């Protein structure tokens, strides 16, 4: 290669080559190639990611990767060593001046630092003593080193300054981590953390992260995957003086888990939230320039990827609760699989419950799977039959008729519910022969479709009267049930006493500040009762919860193919969700889970839920993909873990074009695009919708999310889309513009 020609860096190849040095016994790797300044920066970054040192010599033509710190000058690598015609002999005077400059520069750079670590001091000393020895050497023979170490341009000065700044930040972060670890509160947290199963897997996990670009973690409830694994990476990076360059993102499916997990990890590290650990959710964040581990919702990361497709600066990405298969999570992994070849240094960790881990591993080219066993305190499980027996609660049949065949008839009329069919086949007297007649009569009268809120109230009352202390977490399907149960509790003789019971609702549309209240401990002599939807199902720990009441259902989007309608209706949860709900008790102390459905129903539940991408109407899916700017719909969806039928996707796009939500180039039109409107223009929006309704009475404007409140004001936001209504003007979802008031 002609002298001076700059070679291109093949990042992937160099990532592997430098990685081999780290694994092998060789101490350093010397490369005599000119990759130019950009190439050197890339290689320096790769070396840093591997925890190695890097330096360039001979005007960047000799590059060294090493396991030990490298000096600024290496005589053994100097091309000109021994060839006197290239040497520049400086006078003692010039050399002394240069050394003074180095000294002053070092002083300036150190100015303002609160505390300098021993290592930093040693580095400065080394720098000064090297300057001193160079000074001595220059008096006699060669001073080539001076020429080498002197920055020739202002860019070089800026680069070395950045490097020194980063080194300092890394030292600072490490010193801070060490000193915080010594604090008594952090020490007691540390001994708790060491008991979690994740701690035993710490070394294996860190090795696997270093050795593989993608790692799938299958961890059971309570093993510590959410709070510990991102923290292990953070500690390791900071300990190895890579803190300045490390940026870890951990996604959570919901706002509440992003905030609560960040708060927990921060307190385990003995820090205020927003120091090295922070969070970011829609319209709210707590982070600083020091933040190295950021918990955010999957939606926030998706939007970041639109602006920053290469996720520059992010070193590790952990995607939690991936098994939930929400739409955002499925979209995210499609994007990430495309991103990985462009970012060979990025580390991706997919964290899932035990089910499904192999599916994700296959999707990412047989990525290794690591299993971590769970840890929970014992949680006793009671099913409907046991609860009825204990509480002596009597379920009233609508027809007040307890004969076996009337139950069968009633259940036979329930459409599209395989679990109703299962219960229909049960011979109550035979199956529940050991239970009292009252229990059997109640089981005969039990409705598979309607949740009996009086039964929920009765169960809460039973716990409060007969069981020990501890908060109660009730899983319901939606706001309607939450508010009705709140009313019932208010009117209850025992539970209505607001001096003894603190009842808190928890729903996704509530402002974050109110959602957070569920984590606060109730005042002394009060029992906390949280009425929640499935947003409390995973990742969160309410540390005083001892009792969980599970109604067995959750509202989920499904598609009514007959009416071509999107429905948000209560459906039976999967076994995986039931397990997660139970797992909210027993995290800090033993607990009890009350399931308000018979065991036969639980045993017949599907292992896991159908992915949201396959439950959501395709038109809605297409508009979401467009609003997130993810490219051509069909090719994007074809890359998904379980792609929808391509013909149906094509039809959906055609329909969206016909109604004018997409144009011929498949771009969002004004109708199909996002609406961001202030409450003041809602009347205008309604007028606009009414006009549209007159033209196309079978369609109405619908929103994926309706309303949220920040700083007291209301906003309408998110993707608006058209749905087809079976009867003009009717909307069963309560989500159409005509329903918004
Ligand atoms: N805010 C908290 N207060 C008290 N203990 C907590 C808190 N957060 C976590 N823990 C403890 O740490 C353990 C591990 O929590 P973590 O959230 O990491 O579990 P996980 O493996 O992600 O489980 P899951 O998938 O069920 O959420 C919990 O079981 C609990 O004992």
Proportion of residues in β-strands: 15-25%
CATH class of the largest domain: Alpha Beta
- Ions and ligands: adenosine-5'-triphosphate
Task: Return Rg in Å.
Answer: 32 Å
CATH architecture group name of the largest domain = 3-Layer(aba) Sandwich
The name of the CATH superfamily of the largest domain reads P-loop containing nucleotide triphosphate hydrolases
* pLDDT < 50 runs, ≥5 residues: 82-157, 400-404, 674-683, 693-741
How many domains? The number is 4
Q: Please tell me the overall pLDDT.
A: 77
| Number of DSSP-assigned strands | 23
What's the CATH topology label of the largest domain? Rossmann fold
Q: Tell me the quaternary state.
A: single chain
User: Fraction of residues in helices?
Assistant: 40-55%
- Treating each run of at least 4 consecutive H or I residues as one helix, how many helices? 29
């Amino acid at each position: 290669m002609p002298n001076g020609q700059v070679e291109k860096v093949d990042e992937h190849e160099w990532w592997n080559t430098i990685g081999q040095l780290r694994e092998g016994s060789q101490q350093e790797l010397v490369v005599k190639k000119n990759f130019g300044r950009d190439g050197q920066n890339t290689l320096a970054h790769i070396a840093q990611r591997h925890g190695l040192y890097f330096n360039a010599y001979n005007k960047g033509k000799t590059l060294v990767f090493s396991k030990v710190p490298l000096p600024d000058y290496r005589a053994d690598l100097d091309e000109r060593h021994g060839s006197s015609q290239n040497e520049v002999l400086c006078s003692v005077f010039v050399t002394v001046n240069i050394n003074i400059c180095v000294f002053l520069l070092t002083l300036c750079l150190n100015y303002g630092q609160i505390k300098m670590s021993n290592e930093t001091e040693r580095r400065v000393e080394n720098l000064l003593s090297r300057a001193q020895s160079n000074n001595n050497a220059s008096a006699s023979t060669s001073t080539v080193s001076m020429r080498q170490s002197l920055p020739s341009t202002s860019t070089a000065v800026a680069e070395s300054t950045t490097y020194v700044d980063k080194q300092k930040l890394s030292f600072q972060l490490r010193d801070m981590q060490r000193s915080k670890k010594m604090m008594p509160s952090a020490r007691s947290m540390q001994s708790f953390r060491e008991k979690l199963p994740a701690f035993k897997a710490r070394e294996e996990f860190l090795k696997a992260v270093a050795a593989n670009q993608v790692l799938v973690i299958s961890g059971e409830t309570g093993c510590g995957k959410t709070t510990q694994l991102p923290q292990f990476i953070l500690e390791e990076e900071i300990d190895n003086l890579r803190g300045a360059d490390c940026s870890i993102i951990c996604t959570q499916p919901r706002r509440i888990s992003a905030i609560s997990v960040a708060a927990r990890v921060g307190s385990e590290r003995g820090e205020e939230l927003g120091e090295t650990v922070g969070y970011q959710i829609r319209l709210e964040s707590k982070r600083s320039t020091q933040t190295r581990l950021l918990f955010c919702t999957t939606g926030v990361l998706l939007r970041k990827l639109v602006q920053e497709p290469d996720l520059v600066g992010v070193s590790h990405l952990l995607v939690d609760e991936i098994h939930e298969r929400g739409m955002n999570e499925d979209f995210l992994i499609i994007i990430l699989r495309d991103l990985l070849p462009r970012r060979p240094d990025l580390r991706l960790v997919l964290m899932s419950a035990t089910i499904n881990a192999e599916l994700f591993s296959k999707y990412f080219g047989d990525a290794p799977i690591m299993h971590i066993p769970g840890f929970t305190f014992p949680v006793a499980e009671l099913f409907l039959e046991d609860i009825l027996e204990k509480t002596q609660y009597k379920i009233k049949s609508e027809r007040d008729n307890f004969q076996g065949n009337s139950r069968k008839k009633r259940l036979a009329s329930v459409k599209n519910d395989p679990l109703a069919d299962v219960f229909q086949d049960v011979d109550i007297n035979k199956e529940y022969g050991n239970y009292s007649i009252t229990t059997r009569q109640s089981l005969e009268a039990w409705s598979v479709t309607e949740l009996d809120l009086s039964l929920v109230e009765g169960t809460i009352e039973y716990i409060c009267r007969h069981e020990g202390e501890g908060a109660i977490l009730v899983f319901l399907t939606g706001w309607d049930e939450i508010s009705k149960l709140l009313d019932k509790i208010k009117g209850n003789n025992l539970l209505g006493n607001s001096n003894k019971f603190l009842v808190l609702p928890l729903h996704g549309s509530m402002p974050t500040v109110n959602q957070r209240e569920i984590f606060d401990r109730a005042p002394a002599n009060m029992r906390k009762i949280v009425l929640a939807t499935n947003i409390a199902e995973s990742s969160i720990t309410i540390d005083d919860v001892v009792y969980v009441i599970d109604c067995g259902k959750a509202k989920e989007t499904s598609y009514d193919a007959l009416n071509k309608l999107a429905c948000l209706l209560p459906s039976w949860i999967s076994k995986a969700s039931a397990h997660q709900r139970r797992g909210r008790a027993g995290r800090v102390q033993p607990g009890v889970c009350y399931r308000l459905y018979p065991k036969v129903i639980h045993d017949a539940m599907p292992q896991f839920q159908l992915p949201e991408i396959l439950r959501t109407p395709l038109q809605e899916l297409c508009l979401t993909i467009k609003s997130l700017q993810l490219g051509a719909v069909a090719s994007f969806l074809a890359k998904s873990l379980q792609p929808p039928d391509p013909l149906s996707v094509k039809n959906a796009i055609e329909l969206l074009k016909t109604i004018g939500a997409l144009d011929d180039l498949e771009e969002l039109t004004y109708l199909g695009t996002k609406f961001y409107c202030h409450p003041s223009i809602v009347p205008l929006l309604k007028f606009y919708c009414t006009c549209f309704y007159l033209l196309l009475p079978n369609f109405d404007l619908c929103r994926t999310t309706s309303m949220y409140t920040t700083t007291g004001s209301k906003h309408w936001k998110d993707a608006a889309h058209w749905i087809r209504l079976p009867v003009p003007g009717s909307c069963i979802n309560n989500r159409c513009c005509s329903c918004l008031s």
